[in-house]
């Protein structure tokens, strides 16, 4: 598999990149920075809003809505042509009164490389229900004219009647509708809902729409369907989005990003900006990619996560789900093996607005993630060997254990990524399980932010050539997890970029070997919606500048760099 599909064009600021015979990317570090802006920088297009409603929008001939009711009482009946949709629960249990509403919209009018900022569903309620009905993403294909309580279409049954089995729908709530009176209601989809719409835009084949359901309700809810005669009363999906992409079809150029040496973690903000966290402070920065420039926004979140600016949270990676950015610290001791509570942070930032007026709001924080991880009672599928290993490498009751420094034998989290299931994947640089890197799934990240005990799914060992994880991110464009591997200790390499399906039964595939600039390491991978070009950030804190490590010089002189890699 090739790592770079097309050559870089123009000057790369911090490095000159060459292809080796087996796909190795090799930089030659320069001693000075190029102060000019790089090519391929393009302003982000203005935010746009597109609505999808049969006979109304985006054009009057739009007919891309699919909707139907599925009914337990008449389990083989199709209601795809009805003018109403209804939802109700099975109360009392066994009464056979369950009804669910299925809705989907063709959103192909939005470019596949667009960045979805928000999404909402507007419906007309003809029979009220003062109870909460939830929206979930459907994951099995269904046909409007054939779907029933028992069948998704004439060729396949639901895994469980009512589209309620494995592979039928996700379990994550995307939004809630409560209608105490008749009339028009708009449901703003939450971060997971926005992420679902992003998947529909980026990967149309994944668009199976939504199901509105609550099997415990006893009050029937009725909505107008897409077949209803009054067009304005039909279900409407509204998506706010921004264009993304690189002009000319070229791989974006590298940049030099000033104010910190550490590209420890990051995530996309929009098509031309990314957010950076670092392991030396709690300052969050937003940069314009492919430029030599200072941050367009810097925000110290120390106080918001319960720390002082002199503390060190050792922030390592970021996972984006909709407009929420989850951030993890290393959950590691310091280099002397001393416990520092500041380094055991997990929190989230909610993103709103557009650059440069974008806002970042801390949405909750936790300091007990690792402690919860060490208790088998908090796992759905506990792996006793892994839990024993993590306990031995943590020893949280002991203030100082020199041998448990993070780059010796101690725990060290450096990866965090979202999975399509709604779980987060936590990646460990250290320890490894034998020679395999360790990933653990966190099933309730939002609940953790509000004080709940963390719940974990399973431990997944990954063969990354004997290396640990240095960064990770789910890519919608690739429908795969992108992984950065590197030494678990102080070694200077090797490093590599991998692609993995996210399925525990499949093995990662190496994309390309990476050779970092001297005294630096690739530590963050950032995919962008609708793009196969992937950004890799370098942690350059140990790079020598006039004989002094970068992290020890004045912040005005600090910088780090990146490289873009095309991944097929």
Would you kindly provide a written description of the structure presented here, covering whatever features stand out?
By secondary structure, this protein is mainly beta. The chain has two domains: 59-242; 308-355 and 364-566, Neuraminidase (6 Propeller). It contains four helices and 38 strands. Strands 3, 5, 7, 12, 14 and 15 form a six-stranded antiparallel β-sheet that branches. A five-stranded antiparallel β-sheet has the order 4-6-13-8-11, with no helix packed on it. A hairpin with a 4-residue loop joins strand 30 (468-475) and strand 31 (480-486). The longest helix has 12 residues, at 191-202. It is globular and about 75 Å long. The model is unreliable at 1-45 (pLDDT under 50).
What structural class do you assign from the helix and strand content? mainly beta
CATH topology of the largest domain: Neuraminidase
Overall CATH architecture of the largest domain: 6 Propeller
In the CATH scheme, the class of the largest domain would be Mainly Beta
What helical percentage do the residues reach?
under 10%
Alpha-carbon Rg, integer: 25 Å
Got a strand count?
38
As for the number of domains, it is 2
- Strand proportion: 35-45%
Distance between the termini: 8 Å
* Molecular shape: globular
Number of helices: 4
Major sheet description: 6 strands, antiparallel
Low-confidence stretches: 1-45
On the 0 to 100 scale, the average pLDDT is 89
Protein name: DUF3616 domain-containing protein
InterPro entries: DUF3616
Pfam families: DUF3616 (PF12275)
């Amino acid at each position: 598999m090739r790592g770079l599909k097309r050559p870089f064009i123009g000057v790369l600021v911090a490095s000159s990149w060459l292809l080796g015979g087996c796909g190795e990317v090799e930089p030659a570090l320069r001693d000075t920075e190029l102060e000019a802006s790089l090519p391929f920088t393009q302003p982000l297009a203005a935010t746009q809003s597109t609505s999808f409603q049969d006979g109304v929008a985006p054009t009057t001939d739009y007919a891309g809505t699919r909707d139907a009711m599925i009914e337990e009482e008449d389990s083989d009946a199709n209601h795809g042509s009805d003018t109403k949709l209804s939802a109700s629960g099975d109360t009392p249990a066994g009464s056979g009164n369950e009804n669910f509403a299925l809705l989907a919209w063709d959103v192909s009018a939005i470019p596949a490389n667009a960045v979805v900022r928000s999404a909402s569903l507007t419906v007309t309620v003809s029979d009220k229900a003062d109870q909460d009905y939830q929206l979930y993403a459907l994951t099995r294909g269904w046909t409007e004219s054939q779907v029933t309580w028992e069948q998704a279409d004439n060729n396949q049954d639901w895994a469980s009647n009512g589209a309620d089995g494995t592979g039928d729908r996700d379990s994550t709530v995307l939004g809630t509708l409560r209608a105490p009176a008749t009339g028009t209601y708009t449901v703003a989809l939450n971060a997971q809902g926005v992420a679902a719409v992003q998947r529909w835009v980026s990967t149309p084949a994944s668009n199976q729409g939504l199901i509105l359901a609550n099997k415990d309700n006893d009050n029937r809810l009725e909505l107008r369907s897409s077949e209803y005669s009054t067009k304005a009363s039909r279900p409407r999906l509204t998506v706010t989005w921004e264009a993304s992409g690189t002009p000319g079809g070229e791989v974006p150029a590298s940049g030099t990003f000033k104010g910190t040496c550490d590209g420890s973690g990051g995530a996309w903000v929009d098509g031309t900006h990314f957010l950076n966290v670092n392991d030396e402070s709690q300052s969050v920065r937003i940069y314009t990619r492919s430029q030599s420039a200072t941050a367009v926004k810097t925000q110290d979140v120390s106080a918001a996560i319960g720390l002082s600016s002199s503390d060190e949270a050792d922030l390592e990676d970021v996972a984006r789900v909709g407009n929420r950015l989850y951030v993890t610290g290393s959950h590691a001791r310091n280099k002397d093996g001393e416990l520092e509570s500041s380094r055991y942070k997990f929190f989230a930032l909610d993103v709103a607005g557009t650059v440069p007026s974008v806002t970042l709001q801390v949405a909750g924080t936790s300091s007990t993630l690792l402690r919860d991880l060490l208790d088998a009672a908090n796992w759905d599928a506990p792996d006793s060997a892994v839990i024993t290993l993590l306990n031995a490498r943590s020893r949280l009751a002991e203030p100082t254990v020199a041998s448990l420094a993070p780059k010796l034998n101690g725990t060290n989290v450096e990866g965090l990524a979202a999975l399509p299931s709604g779980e987060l994947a936590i990646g460990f640089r250290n320890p490894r399980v034998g020679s395999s890197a360790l990933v653990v799934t966190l099933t309730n990240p939002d609940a953790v932010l509000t004080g709940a005990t963390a719940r974990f799914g399973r431990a997944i060992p990954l063969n990354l050539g004997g290396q640990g994880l240095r960064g990770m991110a789910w890519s919608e464009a690739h429908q795969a997890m992108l992984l950065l591997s590197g030494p678990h200790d102080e070694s200077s390499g090797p490093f590599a970029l991998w692609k993995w399906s996210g399925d525990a039964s499949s093995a990662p595939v190496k994309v390309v070997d990476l050779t970092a600039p001297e005294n630096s390491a690739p530590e963050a991978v950032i995919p962008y919606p609708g793009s196969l070009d992937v950004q890799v950030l370098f942690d350059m804190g140990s790079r020598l500048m006039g004989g002094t490590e970068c992290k020890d010089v004045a912040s005005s002189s600090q910088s780090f760099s990146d490289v873009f890699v095309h991944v097929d």
